[in-house]
Specification:
Length: 408
């Protein structure tokens, strides 16, 4: 068996060397010595060398790499590897398709422009021109400017869009804008925080755990879609019973005045209101990034909001299965249907759909200098504006109620 495996690997190696692969094109190019050298140094060359696997590589030229400020030596492999993975597409380019998933689990937008291509890593990016070279196993896209990863978090991105300001306020009141993970000692790369919340053990809405803290990363090391109701659509949610952020802050002040410890006392009204707001936000976030574009699948997608079911311990609940959303997507439109049967349309305005954000966490405080920070977690989010709020259970969703939970 070992001889057969060795022979197979030898044949694959010979086949790769006999073909003009993405890796050979990259290495032989006079203007990409720096990047191709880093690719080999970090062992990323194997993916580009397999003749049976279609791949697209965005390759910064030597001029582009000369503008990159090299990080400290002990984080170089981490930071350079992150750049390579987020400039590598594990597929070929398709006519009419714009959004491509990278090896780094993010997405990048590539559009045809005459005889070449232009790449965008965010909605406000001016775009970087790409010169294409076809090979036997894919395409090399040479870039004379360095295309870095998206560094703007979900909260920071939403904060700049006036049409989403009301939903952004709900995120703030729900606590999903954290700067520091007190357990892992991770720091948000964005000064406005990432979509994670930390609450002490025994806190309202937190499972019983061995840790001092209960952490809730609703955006983790994966890719997601966040559906954001417009300000006008949020009026529908408030009319249906969703508490406003102002109601939460007023309840918080009343708790403190009454000597009630917020979040830990079962009589804390602020804690109960915050749980309602959190659940509302969580139901608008689904696994898998989906864009209004060619090549994305319609279907049922899990959200960050899980059902609570009666536990064997009297008066307590345990985490059940996640609520889902039904998505219908095409190259020109998208709809999302909630658990109550409401179908919402993704907005047609390109400034309010197909928006890209990235929640990145460092292993050290970024104020100490980004050259010293290692990327330890990265969650990519496609933001889609919608014309109405999403509900999972209108009979109980907006009740101010304490649900003590337990792991079994």
């Amino acid at each position: 068996m070992k001889k057969i495996l060795f022979a197979s690997l030898m044949l694959a190696s010979v086949a790769a060397s006999a073909q003009n692969t993405v890796m050979t094109e990259m290495k032989n190019a006079d203007n990409a010595k720096t990047y191709s050298g880093v690719v080999e140094q970090l062992g990323r060359n194997v993916l580009f060398s397999l003749p049976q696997l279609k791949v697209t590589a965005i390759v910064p030229t030597d001029n582009a790499m000369s503008t990159y400020e090299m990080p400290a030596s002990y984080v170089q492999n981490n930071r350079l590897g992150y750049i390579i993975d987020n400039l590598t597409i594990k597929s070929g380019l398709e006519q009419g398709k714009k959004y491509y998933k990278t090896k780094g689990n993010s997405y990048i937008r590539i559009e045809q422009n005459g005889g070449g291509y232009v790449a965008y890593n965010s909605a406000d990016s001016k775009g970087v021109s790409l010169q294409a070279k076809e090979t036997d196993n894919g395409t090399v896209l040479y870039a004379d400017e360095l295309i870095g990863p998206i560094m703007k978090s979900v909260v920071s991105t939403l904060d700049e869009i006036e049409s989403f300001s009301e939903f952004t306020k709900v995120i703030a009141a729900s606590g999903f804008h954290t700067l520091f993970d007190p357990v892992s000692k991770y720091y948000s790369a964005d000064s406005k925080g990432c979509m994670m919340a930390a609450r002490g053990r025994g806190g309202i809405g937190a499972e019983d755990t061995e840790s001092m803290y209960k952490l809730l990363y609703i955006v983790d090391d994966y890719n997601y879609t966040l559906y954001v109701p417009t300000n006008e659509a949020m009026k529908q949610a408030y009319a249906a019973g969703l508490p406003t952020p102002e109601m939460y802050y007023k309840a918080l002040e009343e708790d403190l005045d009454a000597g009630i410890e917020p979040y830990y006392d079962s009589n804390s009204k602020a804690a109960m209101i915050q749980e309602v707001l959190r659940n509302f936000v969580k139901y608008h976030l689904q696994d898998n990034a989906i864009f209004v574009d060619k090549g994305f699948e319609s279907g049922s997608y899990k959200t960050a909001k899980y059902k609570l079911v009666q536990a064997s311990t009297a008066g307590k609940y345990k985490i059940g299965t996640p609520y889902a959303l039904k998505v219908e997507v095409s190259p020109s439109a998208m709809t999302v249907t909630d658990a109550m049967g409401n179908t919402r349309k993704v907005l047609s305005d390109d400034k309010l759909r197909n928006i890209m954000a990235n929640d990145i966490w460092y292993d050290t405080n970024p104020s100490n200098g980004l050259k010293n920070a290692k990327i330890v977690k990265s969650g990519f989010v496609a933001i889609q504006g919608i014309d109405g709020p999403l509900y999972y259970d209108t009979s109980e969703q907006f009740e101010y109620k304490y649900y003590p939970t337990v792991t079994e």
